[in-house]
């Protein structure tokens, strides 16, 4: 290659130099020039590694580099790959535990880069690793200068386009763009930005968790000022957009122009409230416009101060969102560049102070885009090191499962004290951002193993709304606390009273009758305490959730003349059947709630009240028939018309739309697992051996008309030993949003499905349970999977399970009681192998 042509139209995040082929014969002045380039790259966050067969003292003495950071300089002087980290004090050994013996120098270096969020596709390798072909030192300098120039001119960074970690969309496709905007959502710390293209008319929807406006059922999330809008003329006619889940960035690149439009954006996982973007195109096409744009359809106050734009949205409830942004425009020859930084803050009580938001932005500006990106990549690398899934024989399922984890982090992880997690998270305005039982029974069980602090904040949202739940109970003539079916800012019920089905106006009764959410809230608090081992939280701040919900059920039950207890006029998870009595799910969850509250109440509740809870729990009917091993979903269910879904359509299907509400209500067709949810959430409250007969009976009657349904079905089928059948249900759940199977992904991701898929993998296929400080594993792998690797947290430990049909290899970073189901648990200090007996 001619050195004059050694420009690469791509920005790399790390550089590897094979010194012996590039610099062995270089003069001292050339070495000094290379040294300065290496130090400049390190100052610009680039990691540099120098490989040589020369001895360390000789190489260090010749290079004499003292990189200022934050990028690191590594030296490797043997084929075995010992690494040295170079600082102002000179080289020091870099401990690299965990690598196989004999790993090559390049392998060790790439592994180190990966820990910092830099994959192989972001590494520029210069020189011949075999040492047989010399590389002109002028070529080396030209390549280094090209990378330095790109950073000086704020050119758009690159991504490591690895199929295992990326979601791609080739466009434009107007029919698909609204869906991809949702799929490409980026979020952190309670803020999320939809992945709309930069020239979109809405400027890119930005939402903040828990910031609502309006009253009653009309209460909805408040769109924040948008920060990603740009004018590109003409608009890109063909492009590719890539969501890089490994490093949490969204890249876009035009494919038809000699100086194509490119952009890369991130919502920082390391600097809360900070977002950043770079974009570039031919100078005549790119007009940046203002750094902030109006929130969709909402008035804002805005202005400029010291070169920064600010905007603020205030809700009629007193809450508010503030944003401050800065923008820097530049040129690199024929290419115009734009760099934009934005800082956001939200407050549920009053609009945030602008000076506080400006301070966050100024800190981001001091770090600079490159440092923000590098720190963001490292934050994501730490996440994936702690929580991940590997399915070597099923790369598509693996990628989709990682998408679920990625979007759960983006939509739920929140450093604030409380977290309102709506059915669509903050990826869209679907369901107005209202909080359902989805959060408690589907999302929280996933988050507790991914980010316990975020899970605890979800429970705190419920704790903070106990006063509203108490008022709701009193309003219906009951004691304790009754949580609403749909919740928003205050915790008062915001469920609509009517809606449309098949074009017809129908009443919505869930707000009045779907009461199992009250027990679901209590279950979530207990599950968090069990999984994390945080008993102090359950005995302290979370205890009122169990006590007050138990009091509600105690006053809600009706005891008949024979002494049996009933709960009348409810809706269970199967919403096709309304206003039913003794719904098995509701009754058994209420029973669990009464018993669990009695277990943990201690001296905060009188012994007489505790005894009354236990007695009432024993009296509650549950519809179980020992002769068949089945639970009747509700009183009279077995007398309904016995229809199977397969007689009309292949599930998933909205069978109520297909057959009509009235026909379905008179039949045994159900929307989603109802009785079966008991076997998922509280198996200890169900009759031993009852899972299989209930699966056999209810699965053919389940239409999966709810997005909540397929993932839980997958978990239960796996637990029943029907792993191949479970895999089919899992695939339905994994692709529900990625394929827009419901046609509703444009309005936001289905967070319950995302949480449910992770539950299906962990509690279903891996069979993980945590009880009384012991982790139990009971794997059920599909025949097409030769192995499953999971990483997650529990009981304050980081756990890695490598499951094969023959054994389970376990690694933990701290001692942990663990065992296979049916075997005695072992106290594992670091790692062990568990094998089935016999």
What labels describe this entry?
single chain, about 850 residues, alpha+beta, 9-stranded antiparallel β-sheet, 6-stranded mixed β-sheet, 36 strands, globular, disordered N terminus
What would you say this structure looks like, in words?
- With 838 residues, the protein is α+β, with helices and mostly antiparallel strands.
- 34% of the residues lie in helices and 21% in strands.
- The strands form 9 sheets. A 9-stranded antiparallel beta sheet has the order 7-13-14-15-16-21-20-19-18, with helices on both faces. A 6-stranded mixed beta sheet has the order 5-4-3-2-1-6, sandwiched between helices. Strands 22-31-32-33-36 form a 5-stranded antiparallel beta sheet.
- β23 and β24 form a beta hairpin.
- α11 runs antiparallel to α14.
- The radius of gyration is 29 Å and the shape is globular.
- 53% of the residues are buried.
- The N terminus is likely disordered.
- Rg, Å, rounded: 29 Å
The largest beta-sheet arranges its strands as: 7-13-14-15-16-21-20-19-18
Total DSSP E strands: 36
Q: Biggest sheet, open or closed, and with what strands and sense?
A: 9 strands, antiparallel
Quick overview of this protein structure:
The protein is α+β, with helices and mostly antiparallel strands and about 850 residues long.
Question: Which helices and strands appear, and what pairs or packs with what?
Answer:
Layout (H helix, E strand, L loop, with lengths): L13 E5 H4 L5 H16 L3 E5 L4 H8 L9 E4 L6 E5 L2 E4 L11 H11 L7 E4 L10 H16 L13 E6 L2 H10 L2 E3 L2 E3 L12 E8 L6 E5 L6 E2 L6 E6 L4 E6 L7 E6 L6 E9 L3 E2 L13 E5 L2 E7 L5 E13 L2 E13 L6 H14 L1 H18 L1 E3 L4 H18 L24 H14 L1 H13 L1 H10 L22 E4 L2 E4 L2 H4 L3 H16 L2 H5 L3 H14 L1 E2 L5 E2 L17 H17 L6 H13 L4 E2 L4 E2 L23 H5 L1 H5 L9 H7 L9 H8 L10 H11 L3 H12 L16 H15 L3 E3 L2 E4 L10 E7 L2 E7 L4 E5 L3 E5 L5 E3 L2 E4 L4
